[in-house]
Design goal:
- By secondary structure, the protein is mainly α.
- The chain contains 18 helices and 4 strands.
- The strands form 2 sheets. It has a two-stranded antiparallel sheet. A two-stranded antiparallel sheet has the order 3-4.
Length: 420
Amino acid sequence: MTSTAFPLAERLRRFAPPAFIFLVVYAFYLLSTDGPLNGSGHHVYLAQAMLNGTFDLAATGIPDRYNDVISAGESTYIPFPPGPAILLLPLVAIFGTDVPQGHVAVFLGAVNVCLFWYLLGLLRVSGVTRGLMVPFFAFGTVHYYAAATGGVWHYNHVVAVFFLLLAIILLLRRAPLILIAATLGFAVISRGPTLMAAPFFLWYVYHQRHQTLTFRGLLSRAWLKDVALFASGLVPFGILLLFYNYARFDSVIDSGYQAVYESYVNRDVAYSYYRLQFPDAGHFSLFDIRNVPLHIHALFLAPPDLYPDWSIIRPSRYGLSVLFTSPAFIYAFLVRRETPLKAASWIAIALVSIPLFLHYSQGWWQYGYRFLLDFAPFLLILTALGFDDHTSVGSRRIQFALVAWSVVAGVWGLYWANGW
């Protein structure tokens, strides 16, 4: 009896923290929602169409009020990749289009926080750092708004974060490379820019075999085999996206985003802060280097909206500086240790930012800068390492203050953003 009781007690002890985290975060996310949880459920209707053997949403009953819908003859499509809809297939198969996409976002958002808690354990950070980083991610970053809102854009981000966190966990657990790549592939078919994070995984795997980066190491048979295995896990998802495009628009490179962008231009929609301030200025391209300063402004410089009498400040739906929303991220720049994770994380952040910063929109209806979520797991890793590299009493007080500010800002932002 004793030999079985103790292992059972040990399992319950290990399960208790993530279960508690999930219940608390899930409850707070659910209480933070505003309006019906089935609003903007584009992926619910895509899942229904897929169950009918097509990507055409015309016969699924998708509401006319939905934005970002493309009409092609008698067919109706959405530009978003299919990953988030694939995740909904079992639920839609059972409940039909009554599935509340927003509730799935809330549930998955709480799961993401649990995954991050587990990832921190694999990083072997201190208990204090773990205790600070979990509430920071849950309520002090744009993930809070995305999960509690659950709109089509935000649900996409929550799904991508889920698969990115899972892929990183599998990497640190030394899972088969093809499985890691396949998990990353699901992130890619949820948010395309996450493909640019692939070098993070390859860099880390390389440094598990070699101490320094050399041509000999890059040309070694073992390393080339690793690259081939990783690529073989990603290729099927690339083929799926090409097929998805061709089945909708008779072109493997047409995703539908250009059509949505042109509809904004034709309707003279203020899809960016720049367009709001300068409505008569010329439009940039779908991807244009001139968009880079606009993203830098939204990410680092965008202030809250100030009313004339300064009695009220509110977040702007066009973005809000990360230094205001999540200042604890400053510690990502203060990592002292030299580790493959540090270099790999910065590589991922830099590469994922390229397609994001070139994009014509800076996120639009959002609290903070929602595109940050495409590289958030890597920024969170760096922040946790930075926290753990500064453990003096004074540093811990600063960290606590920055996390507290971030959480308060997150609650404040969601409160006002729910009125948009």
